Amino acid sequence: MNTFARFAQDESGATAIEYGLIAALISVGIILAATALGGSLGNLFNGISTKLSGITVPK
């Protein structure tokens, strides 16, 4: 019975789970932000590439 009481009072596992949940939420936020900004960044770089391809560099 003493082992069960110690196990019930031990909070180290709960802390590890909390850190895991925080890391998962941060990861989801980063993925959502990258997805939302991905299209506009792609368009921006494509526009820059189009403008740079029309430039001739003298030798």
TrEMBL record:
<keyword id="KW-0812">Transmembrane</keyword>
<feature type="transmembrane region" description="Helical">
    <location>
        <begin position="20"/>
        <end position="45"/>
    </location>
</feature>
<keyword id="KW-0472">Membrane</keyword>
<dbReference type="Pfam" id="PF04964">
    <property type="entry name" value="Flp_Fap"/>
</dbReference>
<dbReference type="InterPro" id="IPR007047">
    <property type="entry name" value="Flp_Fap"/>
</dbReference>
<protein>
    <submittedName>
        <fullName>Pilus assembly protein</fullName>
    </submittedName>
</protein>
<keyword id="KW-1133">Transmembrane helix</keyword>
